[in-house]
Amino acid sequence: MPIHTRLILLLIALLMSFPGWTQADNNTVYIFSAPPRETMQVGKDKYDPVARYLSMIIGKKVVYEHPGNWGVYRSRMIK
Predict the structure, then answer these.
(1) If I label 56, which of 32, 41, 49, 62 is the partner at 20 to 30 A Cα–Cα?
(2) How many angstroms separate the CA atoms of 46 and 33, rounded?
(3) How far apart are CA 1 and CA 62, in angstroms?
(4) What is the pTM assigned to this prediction?
(5) Is residue 36 a contact partner of residue 66, using CB atoms and an 8 Å limit?
(6) pLDDT tens series, the chain, 79 aa
């Protein structure tokens, strides 16, 4: 994995470990998503390993979810 990718993942892990994130119970599942530039299967193949890695780093469940289309992605990002 390239160093810049590792640094980005480490930053995400650090941000997710702040106190506001730790108030969630152990059953909380965090959604990791990405812009829908690829098909659902290609997105799953590409980003599932990232979600598993984040789960391992922060000790909380992180799953990849493909947004389906740009409209859904946009509306979820502004929530």
Answers:
(1) 41
(2) 11
(3) 19
(4) 0.65
(5) yes
(6) 677 787 777 777 766 666 565 555 668 899 999 999 999 999 999 999 999 999 998 889 999 999 999 999 899 888 7
